[in-house]
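name: query_chain
kind: protein
chains: 1
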Amino acid sequence: MLIPVLIITFLGLLLGCGTGGLTDPPAGGGTGTGTGTGSIALSLTKISDGASTTSVSVDSPAKLIATAKDSAGSPIVGKVVSFSTTSDLSFNPASGTALTDSNGKASNS
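structure:
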């Protein structure tokens, strides 16, 4: 019962951090930083079969996936996402970074 509470707490903290500077790419090949803001959605999938889940346990580990999108809903490709925690929840590895892929997704494994 404690693990789902910790996960919800962690996700809330991560979402509360905002988008970490994700902005729309410049239009027309310019060099600006964009005008809109992006969003990050978080999801958990079971390691065993890739099914979506809302709970994690020693017997049923999960992968955390962050999906970054711009204000138009398009994936943000090639941005760094950092994964870490300061709670009793643990990652394997304990912390790290990943680049978003062509679908705007990055995971902690």
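note: Confidence is low (pLDDT under 50) at residues 1-32.
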